[in-house]
Amino acid sequence: xxxxxxxxxxxxxxxxxxxxxxxxxxxxxxxxxxxxxxxxxxxxxxxxxxxxxxxxxxxxxxxxxxxxxxxxxxxxxxxxxxxxxxxxxxxxxxxxxxxxxxxxxxxxxxxxxxxxxxxxxxxxxxxxxxxxxxxxxxxxxxxxxxxxxxxxxxxxxxxxxxxxxxxxxxxxxxxxxxxxxxxxxxxxxxxxxxxxxxxxxxxxxxxxxxxxxxxxxxxxxxxxxxxxxxxxxxxxxxxxxxxxxxxxxxxxxxxxxxxxxxxxxxxxxxxxxxxxxxxxxxxxxxxxxxxxxxxxxxxxxxxxxxxxxxxxxxxxxxxxxxxxxxxxxxxxxxxxxxxxxxxxxxxxxxxxxxxxxxxxxxxxxxxxxxxxxxxxxxxxxxxxxxxxxxxxxxxxxxxxxxxxxxxxxxxxxxxxxxxxxxxxxxxxxxxxxxxxxxxxxxxxxxxxxxxxxxxxxxxxxxxxxxxxxxxxxxxxxxxxxxxxxxxxxxxxxxxxxxxxxxxxxxxxxxxxxxxxxxxxxxxxxxxxxxxxxxxxxxxxxxxxxxxxxxxxxxxxxxxxxxxxxxxxxxxxxxxxxxxxxxxxxxxx
Amino acid sequence: xxxxxxxxxxxxxxxxxxxxxxxxxxxxxxxxxxxxxxxxxxxxxxxxxxxxxxxxxxxxxxxxxxxxxxxxxxxxxxxxxxxxxxxxxxxxxxxxxxxxxxxxxxxxxxxxxxxxxxxxxxxxxxxxxxxxxxxxxxxxxxxxxxxxxxxxxxxxxxxxxxxxxxxxxxxxxxxxxxxxxxxxxxxxxxxxxxxxxxxxxxxxxxxxxxxxxxxxxxxxxxxxxxxxxxxxxxxxxxxxxxxxxxxxxxxxxxxxxxxxxxxxxxxxxxxxxxxxxxxxxxxxxxxxxxxxxxxxxxxxxxxxxxxxxxxxxxxxxxxxxxxxxxxxxxxxxxxxxxxxxxxxxxx
Lengths: 588, 347
Fold this sequence. Notes:
The complex is a heterodimer of chains A (588) and B (347). Chain A has 588 residues and is an alpha/beta fold. Chain A is 37% helix and 24% strand. Chain B has 347 residues and is mainly α. Chain B folds into two domains: 1-50, no CATH class; 71-339, Orthogonal Bundle (MetI-like fold), CATH 1.10.3720.10. Chain B is 60% helix and 1% strand. Chain B is built from twelve helices and two strands, in the order H-H-H-E-E-H-H-H-H-H-H-H-H-H. Chain B starts with 34 loop residues before the first helix and ends in an 8-residue tail after the last helix. In chain B, 38% of the residues are buried. Classes of the chains: A alpha/beta (588), B mainly alpha (347). At the A-B interface, strand 2, helix 11, helix 13, helix 14 and helix 16 of A face helix 1, helix 9 and helix 10 of B.
């Protein structure tokens, strides 16, 4: 099923009935099944879908960068040229000059052993834009355009010396260095924090507005779609199920899949009872015992030959029995460190950490084991958190074996009970983790965490590696289980919407310090601190109109706080004029 | 190219034509609280109708498809069975009528009687040596001894190397420093010299020699295992096991080592190949197996002077050494390919 909208002849990127198959050991995989799509100059087309939908594969066909076991059918034109018949040399000239790419993970997209300058000038020299001193000057200009301060100094630095957001700006600078007509941005902000994400999106938007570049934005985040896209194409298992303008698709979805996808996105500020998630408010007893009681906690990482790094600095908060406390913060805020300390994996350098009424600082191994019996844990990465060599049943029963609870028969019974609770068929008992997908593995992790009926659960970003629809299911199961078993939970997340959905109390962390803490309604609806306000303003919502308003508000907030809105620092005409080729391109 | 593998769109009314058996199986377990999510989920259905492959089975499957490894395995089995059954093992007699210690009258200048056109086995297929001993029996005896040493050393170094590597990698700190410095010490001394000194002291018996060789060749595996353990111990499933209160030994044996099996098995195979060569070199130099017992290396050494006159005395043990070393190496390659994690099984 393909939906085609009116096609203007000036499309810079045009996919027509693109079909991709991969030959593998277990037969052929049909990854893309006849997708037609086009991107006009100065237009952002969002290609949306969850993992396995074929969105990245579709975009890679335009760069001709698929692995050799891929068979591609259909017609792809970039800037009016059919690329399937181009020679390898012509294709190399096309990459960069006409079509460029911005990748998901800026750390791996940049070569760690070359300076930023070398990587920028390489593109310029290869495409004959500039060479030598002129190329360096141009590189500095480009860095300045994408909003990197002190570009002349930065150009001599290596990727690891820059922050994640700055690295992504460098990747964008490289992408625009040869003035391409179209940029493919493959999940450009997925690896970044929300505030940085908002800045990078602002920058990308200004590319479209000022340079008239077409952008094919690949993303799974509906908020990003609402913020950026002019048109949206939704992919599901290799098929294009719906296309239309952002307003049409997001506000009035036609296809069942799009509807389901949109209904699975938790919305910030929409309150409880979304997606069937039910967290009861009345179970909280104000005088309940404390599951976690932190007082002036300090955690330090020791470094060789340097003063220790203080990851958590003077943090105090409490978690009551039966209560979910959301620990929010961006990367490097120390939220996971606190979680690991709660599991007794990292010692505290100062302050006190009382777990279920006992002080765990300086506890003996035996005592620690006794207290660990009462705590469950869920980690972020579903691929890494289960032992690939153990069948699923054994993964779940492992805590009982370690603590010698029950005999074999009882353990098996408990595993079946838990599999039922997380809505997995009992038959998976003897299967291996690699046979099930990410969300199912995460449900197995939840089952394992609940094996010993813990009083406290530490969940470290349990859903951030999952697709939205899968996340909805996992959160749903999680909330049901919480209502049934009434465990206290320290829920660590960077996603404010998820926290809004689940938590009773919210603690906002920044650089190892508590910025703001209190009941959910107070912190998320009426934030007092500047940092919390920024965080909330940066989180995109999947509603184009609303998001436009939020963006304006955020820009107003930034200006009020004395920051500038990030955008490309060049006007379109001036930018394009510099690309009159001055020398013959090298034979690539 | 047909489109048969394309599942019908949900809601199109033709879902029952789907080639995925789960989707139209009324007896399949259904969990339909979240109806829309289930039908449109990107999560793959857990296909319970298909046979479940554990990781071990997947690896075995790939290994058995590796032609080079299979040919090598067949060759190695052939040599091993030949060596054991022909002259027998210990008191058990074999099917070959001659033995390797009795001298007899040298016939036909000791020339091999093995013929290919027409195929003929003859009285002395590999010929006879100076004193008229049957060279086939001698070579088989040498093969037995060399293989015994190689496999003993292979097993012992694997145990030693894995234990040292795993302990160093998991416990870190001073334990790691001590163990790894000892490893470095063994590595900086040239292997052949060390083995020669230790081999000299072992007195020529094959069991002491095997133990001595094991003591010098565990270092490579120890470093490999340590590296693997260092990366595995940071994985979340190990952290999860620690958080549950699992003891360090259980974590090492139950959670970490099974995941390093690939490295260990591959390395053990390659160790066996190199030990065959090391033993031959030592015996050739006179520091390994000594007469009256024999080994392939010793046979070559003993008859090196007759190479120009009676080249078969050199070629038969030489070819067998070559064959064993090559086939074990190919086996190692096949195993490495089978364990290769680049094959994506998940997702």
